[in-house]
Amino acid sequence: MPADLAQCVADLSDANPAKRLQAAERLSQLGCAAAPAAVALVRASGDEAEEVREYAVAALEELGPPRIEDLAHLTALLGEQRSDLGYWAATLLGRLGDDAASAVPALANAVVGGHDAAVSQRAAWALGRIGPAAAPAVDALKQAAVTGDPRLAQLAQRAIERIVG
Amino acid sequence: MLRSISARLLALLLFVGCDAAPRLSLEREPVAPPSAPRASSIPVDEGSAAAGTIRIASYNIQVFGTSKIGKPHVMDILADVARRFDIIAIQEIRSIDQTVLPRFVDLINAGGASYAYLIGPRLGRTSSKEQYAFVYNSDRIELGQAPAYTVNDPEDLLHREPIVASFRVRGPSPERAFTFQLANIHTDPDETDTELDALAEVFVAVQRASAEDDVILLGDLNVDEYNLGRLGQLPGIVYAISGTTTNTRRTRMYDNLVFDGRFTAEFTGRAGVLDLIAEYGLTEAQALEVSDHFPVWAEFSALETEVGDLVAERPSAGVR
Questions:
Q1: How many domains, in total, are found in chain B?
Q2: B224 lies in which domain range?
Q3: CB A50 to CB B156 under 8 A?
Q4: Above 60 in pLDDT, residue B24?
């Protein structure tokens, strides 16, 4: 990781909110070059300071797929209590496509495991992005497809179609 | 599939036609006394808006919140940008603090201009919320009679549902003045495929639910002109921005103004991207401090035009 990026990542967990804000803002200006900071940015999406969260989200929106070596960290973040972290972890896993196959069990659990609605929906979306490699999650998706949450039901149905063809 | 789409469309129409008022959550702020707008220090392109025309812009002001408003060098540029246009549709107001936009409009008006604004509700599925706004020169533009509203989205197809507002050009007699509706949108970059399809339904629903035939959907679409999905397949659809980039890194096209060229013959064929790096002599890093997007704009006649000449035939407008 380039030194300036590594410094931004370190600053994102600094006790000083101004330093965290500066780091998040800087990362929001880097586009896909901020990808190595993906895990730190997901954590920052739950920062107590609003502007840090917002700049972290702006960076996450633009950084594209994360690094494959961050897969395990992102998978672990799916279970975070703060729902924004789970939402962004699922989003980044989905962007990895079938490279995120190892995250399928965790994503399936996020779909039906009583997570926040936005996390469950994004997990269903991510499974669709993973495609056929997400076949072990089809049962969970079928369960979600008949849920009372119309968005989750649609995303689950669409994911099933992408997985089974 | 057709049945499903029709059902969703019906839901949208019901809202637009009957239930708009209860969902209306837009605030109308008092408009400052009319005064002459301040001339822009730098023209948008080779000249300011031609006589008898208006310029409508869309601008994603990335994370527009208290941090940005606290940077005078950034805000001066944003205010100058706003003064170049008669209406600017803003995306990405991200702040719990609801004084951000009023403070911005105060800055725009500090030199004697007379801009007013409409702002929508905070929208989003996570704790990160965004607001849309329209900032308009009240010397040249007034709100139309139809109430502004946020599109109802019972199936949650869109992350941040568009706000729709109607406007009329001031000056010409009311029966001759260009009237139009603007739908302001920022799509979810991870779900553009489904959202662009849903926006086709929104566009048609807004078009059909009103006597107003000029509907302009504008904003950060997160796609270029070739990836507009069903929105781009609507009959007569025209996109004002084509063959260029709209992000500050000059690598991607995200932003556009889209309308039905069969009806919106008021489009003069002039449109563009305001490149802040070139216009203000900024470095890319300085421009990124303002936003990761550039504003996009299109010019329209101030007078209502009889439908007949298809904008699709004009060279600078893209047509699907």
A1: 1
A2: 6-38+48-301
A3: no
A4: no
Q: Would you tell me how many other CB atoms lie within 10 Å of the CB of residue A127?
A: 35
The reply to whether A95 touches chain B by the CB within 8 Å rule is: yes
Please indicate, yes or no, if residue B306 is contained in any of the structural domains. Answer: no
B124 in a domain, yes or no? yes
Unique residue bearing structure tokens 């980044």? A92
Measured CA to CA, the distance from residue A142 to residue A144 in angstroms comes to 5
Is the ipTM, as predicted for this complex, more than 0.90? yes
Check residue B121 and give its pLDDT. 97
Res. B20: pLDDT tops 90: no
Q: How many CA atoms lie within 13 A of B265 on its CB side?
A: 11
- Tokens 């949650």, residue? B156
CATH number at residue A10: 1.25.10.10
Per-residue pLDDT at B318: 61
Nearest to B275 by CA among B68, B77, B124: B77
Cβ-Cβ contacts under 8 Å, B190 against chain A: 91, 94-95, 125
Query: What are φ and ψ of residue A117, in 5° steps?
Result: -55, -45
Residue B49 in this model has a pLDDT that exceeds 80: no
- State residue B25's pLDDT score: 30
Whether B189 and A95 lie within 8 Å, measured CB to CB: no
pLDDT tens digits along B147-169: 999 999 999 999 999 999 999 99
Nearest-CB residue to B126 (from A29, A55, A84): A84
What is the rounded radius of gyration, in angstroms, for the C-alpha atoms of chain A?
16
Domain that holds residue A49: 1-64
- Rounded to an integer, what distance in angstroms lies between the CA atom of residue B134 and that of residue B308? 29
